[in-house]
Amino acid sequence: xxxxxxxxxxxxxxxxxxxxxxxxxxxxxxxxxxxxxxxxxxxxxxxxxxxxxxxxxxxxxxxxxxxxxxxxxxxxxxxxxxxxxxxxxxxxxxxxxxxxxxxxxxxxxxxxxxxxxxxxxxxxxxxxxxxxxxxxxxxxxxxxxxxxxxxxxxxxxxxxxxxxxxxxxxxxxxxxxxxxxxxxxxxxxxxxxxxxxxxxxxxxxxxxxxxxxxxxxxxxxxxxxxxxxxxxxxxxxxxxxxxxxxxxxxxxxxxxxxxxxxxxxxxxxxxxxxxxxxxxxxxxxxxxxxxxxxxxxxxxxxxxxxxxxxxxxxxxxxxxxxxxxxxxxxxxxxxxxxxxxxxxxxxxxxxxxxxxxxxxxxxxxxxxxxxxxxxxxxxxxxxxxxxxxxxxxxxxxxxxxxxxxxxxxxxxxxxxxxxxxxxxxxxxxxxxxxxxxxxxxxxxxxxxxxxxxxxxxxxxxxxxxxxxxxxxxxxxxxxxxxxxxxxxxxxxxxxxxxxxxxxxxxxxxx
Length: 510
Hints:
Elements lengths: L1 E2 L2 H8 L8 E9 L10 H9 L10 E4 L9 E4 L5 H4 E5 L6 H13 L9 E9 L9 E9 L10 H6 L23 H14 L5 H11 L1 H11 L18 E3 L2 E4 H8 L7 H18 L10 E8 L11 E8 L7 H12 L3 H9 L9 H8 L1 H9 L10 E7 L6 E2 L2 E9 L9 E7 L2 E9 L6 H19 L41
Parallel strand pairs: 5-6, 10-12, 12-15
Antiparallel strand pairs: 1-4, 2-7, 2-14, 3-4, 6-7, 8-16, 9-16, 10-11, 13-14, 15-16
C-alpha cells in the first residue's frame, strides 16, 4: 500500500462534474505485419493479461481516508476484472476519421470509476475509410487518470504492452496474484490522524479543499491575492467548458519541422511547433472576427534536471509562458518572435534545446486544472472580469523513435487527447513517434463546434510555415512586438459555420 503524493492528489481533487483529468492515448495499427495478417480481440486480451504483473498501475485502486484527513492510498483491487477494463467496439459504416474522432472524444469525456483501477483500454475496429492508413487497421485507446500516471512515464501502460519486433515473444502464463486485503475505515482514520499530528501542515490541505468546495467566495478572493493578473486578452477558449469533448489531429514529419526551424537561426523544433500552433489559432479566430490585436499566450511545461542531479532523480517541472505571435501575419517573423522568448532565459533554452520534443512534459492539464479553479469560482459568482492565466496549453507526449508492435501489428499512428478545464478550454497535444509529429487540439463542443475547421487551420498554418522555409532569404530579423495595419491580411472568407449549421456563439467569451 502506497500513498498518493500531494502532486498526484491535485489531479484527483481537480475533477469536476464537467471536466476530469483523463489522459487518452490513441494508437492505430497495421495488422498485415501480424502472424496470419490478423489480430483477434482475444489475442489482445491474453497479451494484456500476460503483462499485468509488469506494473502496479493495472491492479491498484484508490482507498480514501475518512473525512479526507489525508491523501488517498493505492491498494490492490481484490475484485479486479480484466474484461471490465479492456473493451471491444467497432465504428459503424463507413468508418471514417470523423466518426472515429467523435467516438474517441466520447470515450475520453466519460469519467473513470474511482472505485476501480483508474484505466480502461478500448480496441476499436471498423476503420475502413481512413486516408493514408492500411485497409483493416484497428485502434487501441488507453484512458488513464492523471493521478495514476508517474511524473516521467505518462505512457507507462503503452510502453509495457508493446514490443520492438514484429515477432511477438511467446506469451508466458499469467503470474499468480494474491491481492492484499485493504485496511478498514478505522485503520485508515487512525493513520490519517497520526499523519496530521506528525505533519501539521498536511491538515491545511484538506481544509483548503473544503474551502474550495463550500466557500467559493473566500477561495476566489484568496486566488486574487496569490495569482497576479496577466495582461493578455481572453478568447472564446477562456471560458467555462462543457462535458462534451471534441478532438482532431493532423500528421506531419519531423524532417518538415526541421526545415521550418532552419529559417530562423537558433530555432528549435519546439519553436517551430509553437509557431504552427500560433498560426492555426490566428487563422481560426480571425475567420470569426475574434482575433485580438495583441499576441495570444500559451503555457508550455518543461523539465529541468540540475547539473548535480543523479541519473535516477526526477527532473523539476516548470512553466514557460510563450507569446505565440498571433498578431504577426508573416510565419517567419512569428517563428523569430517565439525564438526570441525561448532563448531569453539560458535555463529555458537548455531545457528546450537539449532534447527536442522529449523534455516538454505532459503535466499541463493537471496544473491547468488546479490553477483555473479560481477562475471557475469567479465565473460562477459573476465577480468581474480577469485576464486568463494563458489562452491555451501546448504540451508534448513523447513517443519512441523506433516502430512498436502489438501482437505483431505495427503501430502507424500515435496521438493523445488531453484534459481541459474551466478557463483553459484548448489544449494542443504534440506527440512524436517514428519520425512523425502529430498535433492534436482538444476542446469542448460549445467552444469549438467545428473541430474539422480548426484542424484545417492547423494544416494551412503548417503549409504556410513550410512554404516560407523553402524560400531562400537571410535569417529573419528581430520582430516587432505589435503588428502594423499593413501586416494584417485582408479577410477573404466569411466566418465559418459550425458542423451543425450554427455560427460560433460569441457570448462564450470569458
